[in-house]
Amino acid sequence: LSPGAKMGCFTFIKVMMILFNLAIFLSGGTLLGVGIWVKVDGESFLNIFGALSSSVLQVVNVSYLLIVIGSILLVIGFLGCYGAQKESKCLLMMFFSVVLIIFIAEVAAAVVALVYTGLAETLLTGLVTPLLKEKYGVDKSFTHIWNVTMTEVHCCGLNNYTDFNDSYWYETYSSYPRQCCNMLEPCNSTLAAQSHVQGCFKQILEEIRTNAGVAGGVAAGIGALEIAAMAVSMYLYCRLDEK
């Protein structure tokens, strides 16, 4: 290619890099704002999005997750956009490094999720079950979110109804939540055992497996975008040496 063609190609890729990362930056800001909203007023968020949000609200802490993801996207978007606009090798290398670390972490998380599902369930049980025992029936927002989750997903607790043993709710009402007994009341241990209502973790896991093709396609698309972003940042980085 002639010097002019090379410069035109460089300029085009630089502009695309700026626009792409500007979109990432704005998306990050949006997610960060939503995360803060969920943290401050999670009940109204649930009322607006309903079942769409209830299926995952208690497997992960959505507010913190959105805040973390939004912050990461803000950093990535800023590094990529400003680095390309200013033609800064330092910022472009930082952008490449951050995206590479995220890509490696995503691959590692996917492998762990596929191979160590039981370990993930054990870890979640250790984190979520104590919260259920302490906060269900005490914290209004927490209780409401769990009630909607269990009703919409047709599940009970994280693992099953035994998650509520020795809980504030059981000690106060001598009963399990009615979702543990297919909405029948009073929900005692005998009826809960006969109802065979699965825990929310198992139900959500089934949903993920049912939609594994879609989830895999989305993950592959994100991975491809990350690889493309790293390739473009390296191209700009190397071309700056020639300018």
TrEMBL record:
Structural component of specialized membrane microdomains known as tetraspanin-enriched microdomains (TERMs), which act as platforms for receptor clustering and signaling. Participates thereby in diverse biological functions such as cell signal transduction, adhesion, migration and protein trafficking. Regulates neuronal differentiation in response to NGF by facilitating NGF-mediated activation of NTRK1/TRKA receptor tyrosine kinase and subsequent downstream signaling pathways. Plays a role in the inhibition of TNFalpha-induced apoptosis. One of its GO terms (cellular component) is lysosomal membrane. Keywords: Glycoprotein, Lysosome, Membrane, Transmembrane, Transmembrane helix. It comes from Menura novaehollandiae (superb lyrebird). Interacts with SLC19A2. Interacts with NTRK1/TRKA. Pfam families: Tetraspanin. The chain crosses the membrane at residues 12-38, 58-79, 91-116, 214-238. It is found in: Lysosome membrane; Membrane. CDD domains: uroplakin_I_like_LEL. InterPro entries: Tetraspanin/Peripherin (IPR018499), Tetraspanin_animals (IPR000301), Tetraspanin_CS (IPR018503), Tetraspanin_EC2_sf (IPR008952). PROSITE patterns: TM4_1. Signal peptide: none annotated. It is a multi-pass membrane protein. Belongs to the tetraspanin (TM4SF) family. This is Tetraspanin. It comes from the Eukaryota.
